[in-house]
Design goal:
Number of helices: 1
Distance between the termini: 39 Å
Largest sheet: 8 strands, antiparallel
Structural class: mainly beta
Oligomer: single chain
Strand content: over 45%
Length: about 600
């Protein structure tokens, strides 16, 4: 029953996203001519501007009016207090912009791709510094928070940022009583800021003082940038509260959560749900019954946490029940009318180990997650120290299991490189599973608590690949996996500290060698072969299979909706339709070797 990793005290709740339409500029307040709505954009990772196709769906800044004109900043009509904002953005090489929450607090968007030096507040995902001329020349800037690591993708690729922002609080007289907090900033799936309190407005704010509300603003006077998929949730709606709460406590074995004719040891009224009433470690039953005050008719999600057996009923309907560990997230959404509703929460435990944990949360779209239990009723997560594998001085190899697209792979080698680029490789298939930049490997699940899962995870900016061997006989379909009857892994040899993987494929002897590219921003993969008969077979190289393929220029495509680049020298690519509406990029192979780069 016990879970190995209790990542969060509060359960993860799927947030309801409202989307800002990008059919026109109607969502923005007097946008300058820098801003247009387009259908598609693309750029090489060395380009300083975009190639644009007209249409709808993408917000583009082209810097028509020159730099540093504040009238080119884009102000949304949406005003907000607390907000969770998610959007996709694309930067060309060297570009600079930023998102101002409430028009006052900037999260920096900058082309920080490939930067090896220590990150600063002005890098992508940084919270920009404050500014005060009265501090004296050279000291005007202060505070400012650098991102934890460089999670910036290459120019010309779509990137995702998610910002969870808590607005400052003010008393009835307008005096600030609590600073604004960036609860979390997630850049391309990596947490780069967490629980950062800002004492005041950052440099370049739209206003001269703080307030409870303000508009999202995007810096539009520093360089080109593009956006799509602008989604948000604000938190102004009221939510459920408890009323007329009563509890009953029994001791003994209650396997079905029914007291039957048992005599309670304790009973009474309560103001919140708590496990403090429980006097023993096992063999008890605690029942809460009371009212839910529902402010408005809507759908409400109920999330329960308990160690042992529990059941939640609302208006006589069972929502959540079963045997769980307290970190398990169990939830059910129910539409409730405004007014009072009855609920019953039953909890028992028939084993002596583990915490006596009990929690009940409620979430309404447009309001914060609210705990209806006492803070001490649901314990903090068990502390688990990170077991990190580093690759600082020389290439490092780590074998483990690994999940790839939901499937557990059993013959995986992770290779970390001092250049800061790393990959996971399936030795059974001769396939790259994923590539990443930054820190190397989280091996905690291999060793913590006897290492039951035996998996490890990337610690940096990760790009998942298709996990298939890329060579196919010319004109044939690429199989999901190689035929093990015709395929044999022969080990690897070391060349300049890095593995060269060896295979026999029918009568072909294969070598697969990956080295960092010259800029240290991606991998160059070289496949070479020879046959026993001395003749060269006819192969195609599958560069990738994805839902979309964008040809950026000759020898360069971007895949998976501009998530990563593949670059090569040589043959002309062909794009073929394959199963599930996907497209596959191939090039013909001549000679007895082929090289290509993966850049992200």
């Amino acid at each position: 029953m016990k879970k190995l990793f209790l990542l969060l005290l509060l359960p993860c709740v799927t947030w309801a996203q409202q989307e800002i339409p990008l059919n026109d500029l109607g969502a923005f307040d007097q946008p300058s001519t820098n801003w247009t709505i387009e259908q598609a954009i693309k750029a090489n990772y060395t380009d300083t501007s975009f190639q644009v196709s007209p249409g709808k769906g993408i917000l583009v800044n082209t810097l028509r009016n020159g730099k540093y004109k504040r009238s080119d900043d884009l102000k949304f009509k949406l005003n907000h207090g607390d907000i969770r904002l998610m959007l996709d953005f694309m930067l060309p090489k060297g570009a600079n912009s930023g998102i101002y929450l409430q028009g006052r607090y900037e999260v920096q968007l900058l082309d920080s791709y490939g930067k090896k030096q220590r990150m600063k507040f002005g890098d992508c995902g940084g919270i920009y510094e404050r500014w005060d001329d009265a501090r004296g020349k050279g000291n005007e800037g202060y505070e400012g928070y650098a991102p934890r690591q460089n999670a910036c993708k290459a120019p010309g690729l779509w990137q995702t940022i998610e910002i969870d922002f808590q607005a400052p609080r003010f008393d009835a007289n307008g005096k600030k009583i609590k600073n604004a907090i960036f609860k979390k900033v997630i850049l391309n799936g990596i947490v780069v800021q967490e629980n950062i309190e800002v004492s005041g407005m950052t440099r370049g704010a739209l206003f001269d003082k703080e307030a409870a509300m303000g508009p999202i603003t995007i810096q539009g006077d520093h360089g080109p940038i593009a956006f799509k998929n602008l989604r948000y949730e604000t938190y102004e709606k009221p939510t459920i509260s408890l009323g007329d709460l009563n509890y009953t406590y029994y001791e003994g074995a209650f396997t079905n959560l029914q007291a039957n004719n048992a005599t309670p040891l304790l009973k009474g009224k309560a103001t919140e749900i708590t496990g403090k009433t429980i006097k023993v470690q096992k063999d008890f039953l605690l029942v809460y019954e009371g009212e839910l005050n529902v402010p408005e008719s809507d759908s409400y999600e109920f999330i329960t946490n308990w160690t042992g057996k529990g059941r939640l009923e609302v208006d006589g309907q069972v929502l959540n029940q079963g045997d769980y560990w307290y970190s398990d997230r169990v939830s059910h959404a129910k539409t409730l009318s405004a007014g009072k509703h009855q609920f019953k929460l039953s909890f028992s435990k028939d084993f002596s180990w583990g915490n006596r944990a009990l929690g009940l949360f409620v979430k309404r779209i447009g309001s914060h997650l609210v705990a209806l239990h006492a803070r001490t009723s649901l314990p903090d997560p068990e502390a688990v120290g990170l077991i990190e594998v580093k690759a600082d001085a020389e290439p490092v190899y780590q074998r483990s299991f690994a999940f790839h697209q939901g499937v557990k792979k059993t013959h995986v080698i992770h290779v970390g490189d001092p250049s800061g680029v790393h990959y996971s490789y399936d030795l059974n298939q001769g396939a790259i599973l994923q590539v990443w930049r930054g820190k190397f490997l989280n091996a905690t699940q291999m060793w913590e608590n006897r290492g039951e899962p035996q998996t490890s995870e990337p610690l940096g900016l990760n790009q998942v690949l298709d996990g298939k061997f890329p060579l196919v006989t010319s004109g044939q379909a690429q199989p999901d996996s190689v035929n093990t009857g015709q395929w044999m892994y022969k080990g690897y040899r070391i060349q300049q500290g890095r593995p060269v993987y060896l295979y026999q494929w029918n009568n072909v002897m294969l070598e697969d060698h990956l080295v960092p590219n010259s800029a240290g921003t991606g991998w160059t993969r070289t496949l070479s072969w020879k046959t026993a008969q001395g003749t060269n077979p006819s192969f195609d190289l599958v560069l990738g299979t994805s839902s979309s393929v964008v040809k950026v220029q000759s020898g360069l495509v971007s895949l998976d909706g501009n998530q990563y680049f593949v670059q090569w020298n040589g043959g002309q690519e062909s794009v073929q339709s394959v199963a599930n509406g996907k497209q596959q990029v191939r090039i013909p192979v001549t000679g007895n070797s082929i090289s290509y780069q993966v850049i992200w």
